[in-house]
Design brief:
By secondary structure, the protein is α/β, with parallel strands linked by helices. The protein is built from 4 helices and 7 strands. The chain has one domain. About 30% of the residues lie in helices and about 20% in strands. The longest helix is centred in the last third of the chain and has 17 residues. It is globular, with a radius of gyration of 16 Å.
Length: about 150
């Protein structure tokens, strides 16, 4: 996974002009700097450890992924036939950037990595159907004192 800082300036400006349009206004909440925050990953890539059950069609459940999990120990059972799994097969950080978080923690850019991360299967359900799952995950994040979440939609 390429970081913006690793790209030549001209390419960085081009990508930022396309994808990262500044939003007007001010943040509606304030908080500690990122270097002091505890960060978790929440992904809809349908990931799980090999010893956990696979996701099923329209599954509104979640899988807990320990903070020390290695990308090679994850399986993707996302049920969408339209999803290309090639990126995940080549580098799990595309959908679960745990190695990037570890690098950021080592650099001091973030305070710490959460003890647990969460994976859902993001297909074939409507927002009201996933609310109970979202509330459960939010409770677990709060228990783990997470104050920043990296949301990775797939």
């Amino acid at each position: 996974m390429v970081r913006l800082l690793d790209l030549p300036e001209v390419e960085r400006r081009h990508l930022l002009s396309k994808a990262c349009v500044p939003l007007p206004g001010e943040p509606f909440v304030t908080g500690r700097p990122l270097r002091e925050r505890r960060v978790a990953i929440v992904t809809t890539a349908g990931l799980h450890r090999r010893d956990q059950p696979a996701f099923q069609i329209a599954d509104t459940g979640y899988r807990v992924l320990p903070g020390e999990v290695a990308g090679r120990d994850l399986v993707m059972s996302h049920t969408s036939v339209n999803f290309d799994r090639t990126g995940f097969q080549q580098d799990s950080n595309v959908v679960f950037p745990i190695d990037r978080l570890r690098e950021l923690e080592a650099e001091g850019a973030i305070g710490s990595i959460a003890a647990y991360h969460y994976a859902l299967m993001g297909a074939l359900w409507e927002p009201p159907e996933i609310e109970a799952t979202a509330r459960a995950i939010a409770g677990f994040l709060k228990q783990d004192q997470v104050d920043a979440a990296l949301l990775v939609p797939v």
